[in-house]
Amino acid sequence: MLKGQLQGENKTDAWFATDRFLRLYPQYWVAALLSIFLVVNLGPEVVLGFHKSIYIPVSIENILHNFFMVFTAWFPNTLNPRLVPPTWALTVEIFFYLLICLGISKTLFRVKVWLFFSLCYVALSYVAG
């Protein structure tokens, strides 16, 4: 339903992926470049005073995390550096889109299983702090 049936059209997975990519990544890359600009021009100390996770990534792993906006952790908000701190939530959104493309919501049973695990994840994230 999410991939085009809302408009009465039957969109392909490729169309859906392209649409999501264009909706998320160009704006994110602009925001990440702005963060880099601020760190370079204001200095890391000033920017870290604003948010503890904004600093320039140095390892290949952190560069890839920040470039692709996919923070690979059970709790992606705990990974640093994040050039755009709120994007940890977009990691969850990208994972959701991947599951939709893989057909996780094709049957009512799958939806119920997905809902159960989603609620468990949310509860665990509150308990873990």
Describe this structure in words.
This protein is 63% helix and 0% strand. The model has no long low-confidence stretch (mean pLDDT 84). It contains five helices and no strands. With 129 residues, the chain is mainly α. Helix 1 crosses helix 2. It has helices at 13-42, 44-50, 60-68, 88-101, 108-128. The chain is flat, with a radius of gyration of 17 Å. The protein has one domain (5-102). The longest helix is centred in the first third of the chain and has 30 residues, at 13-42. The relative contact order is 0.11.
| Helix share bin | 55-70%
Radius of gyration: 17 Å
Global geometry: flat
N-to-C series of helices and strands: HHHHH
| Amino-to-carboxy terminus distance | 34 Å
- The count of helical stretches stands at 5
- The tally of domains stands at 1
Number of strands: 0
Q: How many strands, which pairing sense, and closed or not: the largest β-sheet? A: none
What low-confidence regions span 5 or more consecutive residues with pLDDT below 50? none
Nearest-integer average pLDDT: 84
Computed structural class:
mainly alpha
